[in-house]
UniProtKB/TrEMBL annotation:
InterPro entries per UniProt: AAA+_ATPase (IPR003593), ABC_transporter-like_ATP-bd (IPR003439), ABC_transpr_LolD-like (IPR015854), MacB-like_ATP-bd (IPR017911), P-loop_NTPase (IPR027417)
Keyword ATP-binding carried by entry: yes
Residue ranges annotated for the ABC transporter domain, each copy included: 5-235
Keywords: ATP-binding, Nucleotide-binding, Transport
Keyword match Flavoprotein: no
Ranges in a coiled coil: none
Annotated GO MF terms: ATP binding; ATP hydrolysis activity; transmembrane transporter activity
PANTHER family: ATP-BINDING COMPONENT OF ABC TRANSPORTER-RELATED, IMPORT ATP-BINDING PROTEIN
Protein name: Putative ABC transport system ATP-binding protein
Domain of life according to the entry: Bacteria
GO CC annotations on file: plasma membrane
Length: 236
């Protein structure tokens, strides 16, 4: 099984003194659906920003699909992300004045590679994804700003998955939902991901979601606490 994600001796700090991420080694296999759990403030979003190439560690290697993205320029990392990573942000980051449907099309707008992977037109694919996720034709044409939180979340998921990126990163996208809507959303998200053989890293502080995923990681086991790291503690 090849690695979708492999980290080696990765260290990152926002300030110069205290590393918030200090990971000796971590590997996620291609096709895994992984739940990454950690307490609030433990560094989950920071780790995801490194995986997505938004930030770069001060030390170490981050190999995604066999490429070490720490060797790429900021511009090359942006391109890598557009081509290979779907990202569902905590606050969804939809463009409020664009319709739900137009927001989904943005997922393939910046990547010729993702457009090439479509098996039908981008417009039809966006319609199909949104319909499968439960948005009516009418809701699909409404500006994102007037949609409910649950609807916006599904638009963000469709945008992240269109064009079959190899890796999906989801940063606590269910925190605003009740249990029933949350479970339905996760099942659909995993169904769509598995149809594309997309590797999923789903971040949450909620351990009760573990049953949906085939593997789990506790950030505290991967990454020593900031105080421990600054005192020179070892990894894992
Ligand atoms: N842009 C930033 N600049 C400086 N410090 C930051 C920045 N983003 C996060 N931090 C700090 O890094 C630490 C970890 O934050 P992070 O958002 O990664 O945690 P988290 O586990 O995702 O938290 P939550 O579950 O509450 O979203 C916090 O102490 C936070 O203040």
């Amino acid at each position: 099984m090849s690695a979708a994600i492999e980290l080696d001796k990765v260290r990152f700090s926002w300030s110069s003194q205290v590393p918030i991420i200090d990971i000796d080694h971590w590997r996620v296999d291609c096709g895994d659906t992984l739940l990454l759990r950690g307490a609030s403030g433990s560094g989950k979003s920071t780790l995801l920003s490194l995986l997505a190439g938004i930030n770069k560690p001060q030390r170490g290697e981050i190999c995604l699909l066999g490429s070490d993205i720490t060797r790429l320029s900021a511009r090359q990392r942006d391109k890598f992300r557009a081509d290979h990573i779907g990202y569902i942000f905590q606050q969804f980051n939809l463009l409020p004045y664009l319709s739900a449907h137009e927001n989904v099309l943005l997922g393939v707008h910046f990547s010729a590679l993702r457009r090439q992977r479509l098996t039908q037109s981008a417009t039809q694919t966006a319609t199909d994804y949104l319909s499968r996720l439960g948005l009516s034709k009418q809701q699909q044409q409404q500006p994102a700003a007037v949609l409910s939180v649950g609807q916006q979340q599904r638009v963000a998921a469709a945008r992240a998955l269109i064009g079959a990126p190899e890796i999906l990163i989801a940063d606590e996208p269910t925190s605003a939902l009740d249990t029933e809507h949350r479970d339905v959303f996760i099942k659909l998200l995993l169904e769509l991901s598995q149809a594309n053989n997309t590797t999923v890293v789903f971040v949450t502080h909620d351990a009760t979601l573990a049953g949906h995923f085939n593997t789990h990681t506790e950030l505290s086991q991967l990454n020593p606490l900031p105080q421990t790291a600054s005192a020179g503690g070892s990894n894992v």
